[in-house]
Specification:
homodimer; alpha+beta; 6-stranded antiparallel sheet; 5-stranded mixed beta barrel; 22% helix
């Protein structure tokens, strides 16, 4: 069985801790006893739970290009089926199947389980997940869905209504979109369960659909032809057209931590980061900034601060912020990359300064900038650098100018920190990457 | 008549917009129609009101050393009687008298009016202020006080109780410290008024006291011997010992804006700076940071953010914050100086980066650092610099290293911005100033 974590798009709902380069699933917010006092993110928590349940053998992630570096930073060496652009969940499932076939040794007869990257749940969920393949084969169904047994008539989720047979699984009678509360109560009386976005199928099911569309289930081909896939959800493209499905219920803790209200409820600590909370009730502070936050006399408030901005919201009204935040037109100020982190610390009309941290041993891309000069000021650690055809050692206290057009690459010998000051047009997209690695570039130096 | 604005000490009560180098009276928070859309500070507002009332002829400020640069930045060329250290209000009044005698051409027979720098009041207050000298002379009293006619039995202020004669002024029967509400009501029934810290006297009154202490009413002498002055308030040292005082009542708007609660009520705008307020009630945001603040669904909240930190407080509970904030051990991150501003933008254990802005034409001190190297990266504008015995022109894009021990001085030709990166021991007090000006230093360059 191949297991795929579907990593959704960027969430503005958890701004300012999520941005285009850091979706909510990467926010480090959970305490994990095994990890000492370190916080871990949703995706780290889920991958840990999959490992604990023994479902990590053929595990990979399907995610957008912009998440690649943070995935490797948080999870190390894990396979990634890359969506070249965002086109909804059916294309994501399709390219995941292609990835399994092209790069993981899967055949069309193998089963695949898809699950979201951000469930907040317990081990029962993963146990049920592990049983889906067996249920699929035993029943002869085309798709096995997992359903969460409702703990209340929620209006936030879609429902799956089963037929009335009552074994380990049931065939699916119908799907219902988010109902009103009255309808939800009726659905529950018919043993309906929440649709939690978990489905298991034979890879051939998707390959057949692709072939009908005139497309090939090959990863490199689909990556290059991604725009030919329809922008449609897996639910509309596949589930609604399938008449041979079963649903396997899971009863246990399961939450959608998609709003600050829900997320703050799961924060064990009152504060994360530099913060003082005084005479407050049911209030949470998450501060990624260096400067302190003082919360005084508050009730039911969430405060979240990052280099991107500061949010202060009443907890139960935190669903609004997505729309408010989309009115802000600011570039991401903090980015996690494969090789380290980037933080914008100062900005002007014609200049921009970033504090760069590189992990020991990491190498940047080989690149140049067309419209700006850069001044680098080394703050900490040691590295090696090639600028033009000159190779040099760098260390704390040194500074150098990188003229526009000059090729450069840097390697962190120890953990390395420097300020990167852009002078000219402050556009972080002005980077021209050259496809040489360190060893190739080194041969050209004097 | 000499008019002295007594500028009190640093307030942590309005943290993070006040710090040791910026007291609350310098926060730019008021709209002023005449100034276009610019905000002005309390001290700018009061000085403007004094000018409008024609009481600005012999006007100066008494303030601590650390406020000198911000005073000149906000008020331009105004006289300052400098307290070399904080020693309460009697020493401040004493050195103000000495300053008037030594540097403003005053004689001991001249009158002086002292007022706090931060009253939030209207023109009637300044009209009454202008009448104090006449009342003092006419009555033959030693001290004329101004009293504010109470609008409620407040327990926050001291009261002045008059004798029962009912002319433009009355002689003073007694002082009462902050009373309970019941006592306040009784005091008001006896025509008592709030003590608002405004007093008028002949300068000789203070000179006599100083002579009795064996001290001279000379500015340079008192500045050098300031520690010989007792740490005592003007009220205890002078008022309580005086039995020939009058009080002149003022009836009108008068407020103490010493807490965020009071201050926020006078803010005409819902937000100052980069902020979005959504579905909020009676909420104010003051943001001096570059990054946006989003306030969502809040009631009765004040949010204030500066480079020093972020405060989120329930309005009526804002009196607490002074104690909470004194638990924070952080150096000021934003400083206003005579020649421009300094903002700390990045900090590490062995490095610190400040964004420096200098006004056109301004010159730094001539100085060196003992324990750090500095790298300067020029972002904007042009300047001239002397480093060691080298003179050079600097402009955007340039960078240079200032080794520890190397003397340097810089002059802004146009408005000039640069990053000052400290590498080594990040201690902003490691600055050794040399008493040479630009012209003297220039002669030594090659």
């Amino acid at each position: 069985m191949y297991t795929v974590l579907l990593s959704g798009g960027s969430g503005k709902r958890l701004w300012p801790l999520s941005n285009d380069l850091r979706s909510k699933q990467y926010i480090k917010i959970f305490d994990e006893a095994e990890q000492g006092n370190e916080q871990i993110s949703m995706v780290q928590r889920v991958v840990g739970q999959l490992k604990d349940s023994g479902i990590d053998k053929n595990l990979f992630i399907c995610a957008g290009n912009s998440q690649l570096e943070i995935i490797h930073s948080q999870l190390g060496d894990i396979g990634v089926a890359v969506e070249p652009e965002r086109r909804d969940t059916f294309p994501a499932v399709a390219i995941s199947c292609a990835y399994a076939l092209s790069y993981c040794g899967a055949t069309e007869q193998d089963c695949m389980v898809i699950l979201p990257v951000d469930p907040y749940t317990d081990e029962g969920y993963f146990k049920t997940l592990g049983e889906l393949e067996g249920c699929l084969c035993e029943s002869g169904a085309d798709i096995a869905l997992m359903g969460v047994v409702p703990d209340c008539p929620s209006t936030k989720y879609g429902y799956i209504v089963p037929n009335e047979n009552a074994g380990r699984y049931s065939s699916v009678l119908e799907f219902r979109e988010k109902p009103d509360e009255e309808t939800a109560k009726q659905l529950i009386s018919r043993n309906a369960v929440f649709n939690c976005g978990v489905f298991c199928f034979k890879i051939s099911l998707i390959c057949d659909i692709l072939r009908n569309m005139g497309l090939k289930a090959d990863y490199d081909y689909l990556y290059a032809n991604y725009e030919k896939l329809p922008k449609i959800s897996f639910d509309y493209q596949v589930l609604e057209k399938c008449d041979n499905m079963i649903v396997v219920p899971f009863m246990g803790m399961w939450k959608d931590l998609g709003t600050w209200n829900a997320l703050a409820d799961e924060m064990q600590r009152e504060t994360i980061g530099n913060a003082i909370v005084e005479q407050c009730d049911n209030t949470r502070v998450i501060n990624e900034l260096d400067i302190p936050i003082v919360a005084n006399g508050l009730e039911n408030i969430v405060i979240a601060a990052s280099a991107d901005g500061i949010l202060v919201t009443e907890k139960t009204k935190s669903e609004n912020i997505k729309n408010t935040v989309s009115r802000l037109d600011i570039p991401p100020m903090y980015e996690e990359r494969r090789w380290g982190t980037l933080k914008t610390v100062d900005r002007g009309e014609t200049n921009l300064t970033r504090h760069v941290k590189m992990f020991a041993g990491m190498v940047s891309s080989y690149h140049y900038h067309e419209k700006r000069n850069e001044v680098w000021v080394f703050l900490k650690g040691t590295g090696e650098m090639i600028l033009g055809n000159m190779k040099m050692s760098v260390s704390a206290g040194m500074s150098l100018t990188i003229p526009q057009g000059a090729n450069h690459i840097i390697k962190a010998v120890t953990e390395l920190e420097f300020l990167e000051v852009h002078i000219g047009e402050p556009n972080t997209n002005d980077i021209h990457r050259l496809s040489f690695d360190w060893d190739e570039v080194e041969k050209t130096t004097v």
